[in-house]
């Protein structure tokens, strides 16, 4: 049946919940493009036949193939765009350096897009605050206090904070640290915010 | 050295620095830690909290953190040994020690630079004076000078020189004799000073006072201070007199905080925390259990009635009948008892218990009340937190996990943890009572001469519960009390108790605890710390003196008998 591979791609994205990026499905994409090519050629041939031999009974099949082509295009566009949105969210989630396993799942073009997005975000942030620059990827929720109490969930080794001092993060030790340094680690699951 | 002005010499010093908190594993330390954490949160002092369960933990934690921190605060650990020798710190590390263990090691007292003790100086310390213990080593040169003088003036007649020689030799002999005498006296003084272990003012109360001086004290901190004090009483660390005195101190703070409750117009919302002074019954956890269970499982009542005998059970029924409490009511959950019965319960029980020889069924304590459902007495919270701290529910759980859970349960926002702690405490109390009953009935307590001895076999039910120091100490205390009530031998009533229980079956270790004898006016001074050390040395048994309380040690089970023999000979 036509357009099934396209639906496969969409389903693959849906199966992976928000925020996860599955591997770039080159194969699937290539197959869909091949299908589209085949459909297009058939359509070309039929249109020529219909024009020259005045065979109007070919028109419904031409229309059908045309619809399939449009559908495939729409599915591919949705796939690519959704991936881009997820990659954009990754910048806000992880920071400007992506972990290796995530980068592995991106195609070369996506990597290029990501670096350009990074650049434009960085230049925007630099322009804020009258040229002084402001990091808007910090403090996604309005902070209640400067320092927070965190508990270490697993051994993470040494961790350096802004004034150069090093803290040893051992399992079940509790620390009282500036909140901006901890946010990264809290997102990674190494530290846990303790609300008493 | 002792810190005189705790605000200037401690708080303002650490306020702009990063601090490492090393906290021991007992409830008083947990409460003190919470108070200090709350103060640090107010002032944004960055800190790192590391739980430590013994000397080895302390050394490891210090080694790991000594690069990063200059200021260390030790809570309930470190005062009773020579800390500088044990940890070998750099010259710029400063230790603030708030510890209830006494006696405080003399080196810690007289060190001016690195050790600061957050302990009140009038706290019944009787530290020997400096000159009695320390002496400058410059007197060595006095001998040299004398012999040096002899070589001058070479034209002196030999007779005179011999007289000079004799004079010099006599002086030297005199000096050496004086020195020997001084050293003997010094040994004696140190022996007397360090012989008995006891406990001082609660660490939580010290930190609450700091909060009060900074006028940053809140009701939460006050409640934690009360829990810390009650922990000392529940685990029998301080005398009754001291407990009552400290309760009076706390009562002043409580009435100061309750000042706002009096106001009729702007009364506090029901969700606010209210602490009240209660002259309440000495029945453990009775408000969260049924009255009957509580009477059966509290040390005081169970030993007075001797509930492990049939006679005792009958007496209990008589007691309940005397008070007019129907059995059905008494066996239900306390909260579901009839209001008419609950109203005068305390007075009714006090009257009846006077008839049965229980004069002190009521004890001064504090209770807290927040929200509609949540009422707790200080004793309840101590038992719950102690049960969580030493829970053996999950086999391979880290001691630090339990520490974190117990620490969390002290906050008002973690009521579920508190309730689970109360359930664990109930199980623990039941286990203790059953073990006590079986030990008394099977005569497991033997008199070894200078002390009583009991060993828990490996197959005893719930023996895993008793491989932890706090639980074992509680069991020891109850057992001794029960024994004193059940034996007819007058001499045995005045003996202390040593108890051993298996700690780790695979490694073949046992945990040994010694407690002082039970008496009305006992001053809770424990000599077993030194005794255990000496006995272990003399028999070269494989012992581990890891616990901060010197009277709790670990021992290889094979060495148990020779260790015991050495102890008997030592103490007779």
TrEMBL record, chain A:
InterPro entries attached to this UniProt entry: GINS_A (IPR021151), GINS_bundle-like_dom_sf (IPR036224), GINS_Psf1 (IPR005339), PSF1_C (IPR056783)
Ranges of residues in domain GINS subunit: 42-128
Main location group: nucleus
Pfam families: PSF1_C, Sld5
SUPFAM superfamilies per the UniProt record, alphabetical: GINS helical bundle-like
UniProt keyword annotations, A-Z: Chromosome, DNA replication, Nucleus
Domain DNA replication complex GINS protein PSF1 C-terminal: 144-195
A single cellular component GO annotation: GINS complex
Listed GO biological process terms: DNA strand elongation involved in mitotic DNA replication
The family this protein is said to belong to: Belongs to the GINS1/PSF1 family.
Known role: Required for correct functioning of the GINS complex, a complex that plays an essential role in the initiation of DNA replication, and progression of DNA replication forks. GINS complex is a core component of CDC45-MCM-GINS (CMG) helicase, the molecular machine that unwinds template DNA during replication, and around which the replisome is built. Required for correct functioning of the GINS complex, a complex that plays an essential role in the initiation of DNA replication, and progression of DNA replication forks. GINS complex seems to bind preferentially to single-stranded DNA.
Gene3D superfamilies found in the cross-reference section: 1.20.58.1030
Protein name (database record): DNA replication complex GINS protein PSF1
Localization (cell): Chromosome; Nucleus
Known partners and oligomeric status: Component of the GINS complex.
UniProtKB/TrEMBL annotation, chain B:
Compartment(s): Nucleus
Positions of the UniProt region annotated as Disordered: 136-167
GO BP term, pick one: mitotic DNA replication preinitiation complex assembly
Signal peptide as annotated in the record: none
GO MF annotation, one: DNA replication origin binding
Keywords: Cell cycle, DNA replication, Nucleus
GO cellular component: DNA replication preinitiation complex
Acidic residues: compositionally biased ranges: 136-149
Keyword Cytoplasm: no
Chief location category: nucleus
Pfam families in UniProt: CDC45
InterPro entries referenced in this protein's UniProt entry, alphabetically: CDC45
Nucleus recorded as keyword: yes
PANTHER family named among the record's database cross-references: CDC45-RELATED PROTEIN (PTHR10507), CELL DIVISION CONTROL PROTEIN 45 HOMOLOG (PTHR10507:SF0)
Record-stated family: Belongs to the CDC45 family.
Protein name: CDC45 cell division cycle 45 homolog (S. cerevisiae)
Organism: Kryptolebias marmoratus
